[in-house]
Amino acid sequence: MRRTQQHSLQEDITVASKSTIELEVPVHKDQDILAAAARLAGEDLCSIADLSSAEVRAILKLAHDVKRNPREYRHALDAKQMVLMFEKASLRTRLSFEAGINTMGGNAMFFDQTNSPLGERESISDVARNVERWVDVIVLRTYAHDTVTEMAANARVPVINALSDFEHPCQALADFMTLQEHFGTVTNLNFTYVGDGNNVCHSLMLTGAQLGANVTVATPRGYSPDIEIVTIARDIAQANNCELRLLQDPQAAVEGADAVYTDVCVSMGFEHESTKRAPIFRPFQVNEALMQKASPNAVFMHCLPARRNEEVTDAVIDSPQSIVFDQAENRLHAQKALLLLLLGGLANAATFRGEQA
Known about the structure:
This protein has helices at residues 2-18, 31-40, 53-68, 92-102, 124-131, 145-154, 169-183, 199-210, 227-239, 250-254, 274-281, 288-291, 314-317, 324-342, and strands spanning 81-86, 107-112, 137-141, 159-161, 190-194, 214-218, 244-247, 259-262, 299-302. With 357 residues, it is of the alpha/beta class. It folds into two domains: 22-167 and 331-353, 3-Layer(aba) Sandwich (Rossmann fold); 170-327, Rossmann fold, CATH 3.40.50.
């Protein structure tokens, strides 16, 4: 009975929040979307920093419309071919990309690189020059960020970073789409990230700054985000009249937060540090006591998979405040919007052609 009531509460929150997203103008007349469609066609997405603030807004506006009106886009990517080349395990990223392009008329091919990292069997440049002749877009999930940037430098088709050791841009786009659903806007939203200053943290900082959110990051000493990303994010935040703060006290960081986000303390590739990291990150666990310091209407977020009762307790991740599965769902819609823009698919969408789906 308890699980049914809990699910009902979360459904009520979700339904109420989704009704808050109303685009000011139709997507086919929105200047941000039209400009992004012109500029991004054929481009890569290696980092959120590759995008302007207007382009981030455009992706999310389009994502909301794709989610609301999927039939309008069901033939937008007819005959487009996508290859996913993954060095790391995946659930959400792989399935959301595959479902996304399939439901827009395209096709996905998965190439498992978990036992043969890119660049090991043959050079990345040679891989790029082969693959570009067969597909329209390359989606990479890698360890080294240089793998993504080298592929992008050598391929004549768009390359999408589906996670590297430096960034996870697709995750951050879906996360801020989810926040827009729940709060209507993220401008001046107080967003707090607690935990490791990792790839997810990097993309969240950049995306929050692009959208005018006030971002606070709390990490243990020695685990702060990369200074290069911090510098870029602070410059973007200054231009958008918002704030980026770096702290080492999770209690102070969460005070008054509208959204509290955490991730695993041991990312893929750092498993050998598990024993060392456990006591260091224990004070950064998101539990009921920490959430009580946030705003009364605060939401809890996690990119998943979660190590339950390590970085977050069951009581928090299963609570009505948790929107982790909304985030997972929105990976599909944000990535569909991204594919539409990078592959020039809007010209084939019913809405943009003035047709009925």
